[in-house]
Amino acid sequence: MASFCAGSQSLDDTLAGLHERGRAGEPLKLGIMGGTFDPIHVGHLILAEQVHDALGLDFVLFIPTGNPSFKRDKLVRPADDRLRMVELAIEGNPHFLVSDMEVVREGVTYTLDTLRELHALLPAAELFFIMGSDTLLTLDHWRASEELAKLAIFVGVNRPGDSLASEEDLGHLRALGFKALLLDAPALEVSSSDIRQRLESGRSVRYLVPDSVIRYADERRLYR
Ligand code: NAP
Description:
Number of strands: 7
Distance between the termini: 32 Å
Radius of gyration: 17 Å
Strand content: 15-25%
Order of helices and strands: EHEHEHEHEHHEHEHH
Low-confidence stretches: none
Largest sheet: 7 strands, mixed
Bound molecules: NADP nicotinamide-adenine-dinucleotide phosphate
């Protein structure tokens, strides 16, 4: 069975807490930060924190991918290790949660299945799926996009220096029924692929990745 965890809280307390918030009049506003997180880095954490703040979300739920549909031809570190790195990275932030729901799911991972599952667990919640704005513009090619569009509000984050998405770019998504938002966030020149290269060649990733994650990756020899 899939589980959630938040810092030192037990899984049951966390889930009960989420239901409680959902029932207390206002719907729970839950951000969802899906990612391969190979490895998680400060860019992901800052992105989630900025969206939490800008949209007044109750929590951001990090969901590491299991066996991602769009990376079937690429080498990705084992899902359990990527999950553990996310758990370590979010420790100490009371509004960050992590779920293993994609990691424990059999077969190829699709966001559609994840959003369906979250709806069943938290029917009163408003779900905000957070992503880079480039990824946002590909949504209409994801599995069962018609149903997907009904399951969440999709939040694309523009980072200065990238080719920025505009409100006009969202027009075709909105015409297809997607509720899509654009936000701005600070630019951070950091990517998982750059971090992997640095680790593989023995260079420093200090301050790009939380220390606890660096220690874990080192102990498990994940990138050497
Ligand atoms: P990732 O590389 O681990 O990154 C996670 C998110 O963080 C992405 O939206 C990424 O946006 C953003 N990000 C990365 N570096 C950043 C930085 N320096 N500053 C701010 N933001 C940064 O994740 P991913 O592999 O692209 O996957 C994203 C999610 O989309 C996953 O949940 C995946 O399952 C889902 N997805 C689903 C389907 C499907 O169901 N058919 C298809 C594709 C993706 P950028 O990409 O703009 O860097």
